[in-house]
Write a structure and sequence with these properties.
By secondary structure, the chain is α+β, with helices and mostly antiparallel strands. Helix content is 29%, strand content 15%. The chain has nine helices and six strands. The radius of gyration is 22 Å and the shape is globular. The protein starts with a strand and ends with a helix.
């Protein structure tokens, strides 16, 4: 499941090299639970961050679920599309100073998925409720679960990892699949879907937000114009084939 080979991480600090990881070899099989212990500064966080390439190792390889992440890293500072897709299938909970106190443990874990646009169970249940396939309780809110179904109308549900849903289609009668994963699996969401979310009034949107007073910053205005440009709209249409609506189309 997780294998590191000859993993080395060297930081440059105050004009000298500091070695945090020195040839680390690690193999964690599926289902195993490992603890990484050591004094502060021993390299524990560096090792964990190298596992999903949030921290790029100086040398060595990282293989997760049979995929060599170091081969996807590229040379640029920003992670490429392939690496970002691979990361979306790796769960990581940060230390307390990176967690939001206003959220539960579960919602902290789900936050990156929300940012990625991966639907949680509440979003899937709302889609089914909107199309009359189930009926949710009136008290069901934004965090609806299977327990909030008032009438399942004879349907049975099985919760699966979002990335695995396209592969499960042969084993179930229907599945609620995020557009990103549907496109990656070769599906055409607009043509193949039995039901789609409505764009109008949809709360699952990406917003450009700045601090008060920054809205007139020419750099912000330039970014806003680019995001709403015809070129970006064309890219979104080509990449997601109608399953994502561009800002210029939604205005």
């Amino acid at each position: 499941m997780i294998t590191t080979t000859g993993l080395t991480k060297v930081y440059r600090s105050r004009g000298r090299d500091v070695t945090a990881l020195d040839g680390v070899g690690l193999h964690v099989r599926e289902g195993e639970v490992f603890g990484v212990v050591g004094r502060s500064g021993a390299g524990k966080s560096s090792l964990i961050r190298c596992v999903n390439l949030l921290e790029r190792p100086t040398s060595g390889t990282v293989v997760v679920d049979g995929q060599d992440l170091t081969a996807l890293a590229g040379r640029g500072r920003r992670a490429g599309a392939e690496l970002r897709r691979a990361r979306s299938r790796i769960g990581m909970v940060f230390q307390h100073f990176n967690l939001l106190s206003s959220r539960t443990v579960q919602s902290n874990v789900e936050l990156p998925l929300e940012i990625l646009g991966v639907p949680g169970r509440e979003r899937a249940l709302k889609l089914l409720d909107d199309h009359g396939l189930i009926e949710l309780k009136e008290s069901a809110g934004q965090d609806a679960t299977l327990a909030d179904i008032a009438d399942d109308k004879g349907l049975e549900f099985k919760e699966l990892e979002a990335a695995a849903l396209p592969r499960s289609l042969d084993d179930v009668d229907a599945a609620v699949i995020n557009g990103n994963y549907a496109v990656e699996a070769g599906l055409e969401p607009v043509e193949d879907a039995l039901a789609l979310e409505e764009a109008e009034g949809n709360p699952y949107v990406n917003l450009l937000v700045v601090k008060e007073g920054g809205e007139d910053d020419p750099r912000v205005r330039k970014l806003a114009d680019l995001l709403a440009s015809e070129e970006v709209a064309d890219f979104i249409e080509e990449e997601y084939r109608g399953s994502v609506v561009a800002a210029s189309d939604a205005s």
